[in-house]
Amino acid sequence: MTRYSERGGFYRSRDGMIFGVCRGVAQYFDLSLFWVRIAFVAGFLFSGFFPVGVLYIFMALLMKKEPYWRTIY
């Protein structure tokens, strides 16, 4: 089974650390994963749990997991 990322959708990554939200955002917007994670951690530290933590959990619940695509030879 080969895995392909479909560019047309906004998905959580299956290879992410915690729910794969940051990696999914970085892949969709073609950004560096490092800077996306830094932005989430900085936002969490400076604003507290309510805005950023709740947003992260909300995104983890709403975003679909990245699909697996089978190739037929």
Q: Which labels suit this protein?
A:
single chain, 73 residues, two-stranded parallel sheet, 2 strands, 52% helix, disordered N terminus
Short overview:
The protein is mainly alpha-helical.
How would you describe what is shown here?
The N and C termini lie close together (11 Å). With 73 residues, the protein is mainly alpha-helical. The protein has helices spanning 21-29, 33-47, 49-62; strands at residues 11-12, 64-65. It has three helices and two strands; from the N terminus they run E-H-H-H-E. The protein has a two-stranded parallel ribbon. Helix 1 (21-29) crosses helix 2 and helix 2 packs across helix 3.
Uncertain stretches: 1-6
Number of strands: 2
Total of DSSP H or I helical runs spanning 4+ residues: 3
Q: Radius of gyration in whole Å, from Cα?
A: 14 Å
Q: How would you state the average pLDDT, rounded?
A: 85
Number of domains: 1
Percentage of residues in helical conformation: 40-55%
Structural class of the secondary structure composition?
A: mainly alpha
Report, as a whole number of angstroms, the end-to-end distance: 11 Å
The ordered string of helix (H) and strand (E) elements is EHHHE
Spatial strand arrangement across the major sheet: 1-2
The biggest beta sheet reads: 2 strands, parallel
**What percentage of the residues does DSSP assign to strands (E)?**
5-15%
Q: Tell me, what's the shape?
A: globular
Assembly classification:
single chain
